[in-house]
Amino acid sequence: MSMTLEEVLAGSATGERAALAAVILAIAGATRDIAGLIAMGVLAGAMGASLGQNADGDTQKELDVRAQALMMQAMTGGQVAAVASEELDDWQLLDSKGAYAVAFDPLDGSSNIDTNISIGTIFSILPARGGENPFTSAGSAQLAAGFAVYGPQTLLVLTLGAGVDVFTLDPRDGTWRRTRAGVQIAPTANEYAVNASNYRHWNEPVRTFVDDCVSGTEGPREKNFNMRWIGSLVAEAFRILTRGGVFLYPGDIRAGYRDGRLRLLYEAHPIAFVIEQAGGRASNGETPILQMPAMSLHQRVPLFFGSREKVALIERLHCSQRSDIAPSPLFGQRGLFRV
Ligand code: FBP
Q1: Which domain holds residue 34?
Q2: Of all helices (H) and strands (E), which one includes residue 258?
Q3: Rounded distance from Cα 192 to ligand 1 centre (Å)
Q4: Residue 185 placed within a domain
Q5: 233-243 and 269-277 helices cross at what angle (nearest 10)?
Q6: In this structure, which residue's CA is closest to atom 17 in ligand 1?
Q7: What is the pLDDT of residue 84?
Q8: pTM of this prediction exceeds 0.85
Q9: How far apart are CA 76 and CA 95, in angstroms?
Q10: I need a labelling partner for 323 at 20 to 30 A (CA). Which of 25, 144, 205, 249 fits?
């Protein structure tokens, strides 16, 4: 029988970090409750009903609010000093003596709630700083991170900085069981994920990357590519962990989208930590996501992640444009670096 989450944590979150296990178990418990609510669908109420707007101006749905409440409940009374959430205007101090700070998106992929498509919860655990704001560090400061996927199976993807494990929720007894250990992302793959309806808003490097994929065997890459866009970051991240590929949510020229759509602190940082721990790469096109400090709680960031060779290619395309030099033969048609 595969190991339970409790057994795995007992082996990896030891010594000073033993309390980290309790925080992860509390988050796992909340995600199990959220999964139960989602599985009920409309029997639990109109989960996709719009209630207003959240701190960042996104439409807030009933399930966003219920998931937020379940996560907050799980964060109270333990070792959590402070929380930040997509659904809160500001960070909240819970207990200045707590050792950890948790940033989370309680419900990722809200636009998919009514459509029975996979959605999830994303979390990032940082060291606390007493009564000070702990949510300003670079992503490299994370102690643990992961996400739950509420799909055909309920999954928990977790890293404590020493590889990535996947746990599956056993609906027979509510136990999380490890079903994959030491996940590794293929270094290259012929699949990309992007909201192509934004093509006209993108900058040149992103258009070049996608144009080359679309041209298939007739283009500079001389092979065919496949495209997927689910509209739930967690589902795209899990697919990429499973069979490789690359995800792109660039900044674009639409009002409010200069830095893309995704939030650094509770979306890009934790996803980047997982992806890099699985041998992949995550970048804003120029800088590794894990090197970027959070300047504000709801800061957005252009996000490219997945198979490391593909992300490196996207970075080279950004770099070649920024350097403002005559097009190099290396980046030209059928160029070496585009392969
Ligand atoms: P939420 O956190 O509000 O759900 O937004 C994030 C997200 O849904 C991601 O999961 C997804 O990758 C992206 O927005 C979809 O954006 P778009 O609406 O442009 O397809």
Answers
A1: 5-180
A2: none
A3: 16
A4: no
A5: 10
A6: 231
A7: 98
A8: yes
A9: 9
A10: 249
